[in-house]
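[Automated response] Your request has been received and processed.

Submitted sequence:
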Amino acid sequence: MDLTGAKWRKSTRSNGGGGNCVEVADNLSGVVAVRDSKDPAGPALAFAPAAWRAFVAQVAERP
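Generated structure:
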């Protein structure tokens, strides 16, 4: 998976205290990438945009 050109942003749902932070890159064609902000050189997960939207919708429904 080539993430060259990915523009990473911290999730608005991440812990603001520097602990559990997730970064998302959704500017790439055909893929949404997710990584741990504490390990930016580490692995990233890649989702099809429709799968990412479905995941976010399910998470948003939870209390």
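Summary generated for your ticket: Helices lie at 49-61. Residues 49-61 form the longest helix (13 residues).
If you did not submit this request, please reply to this message.
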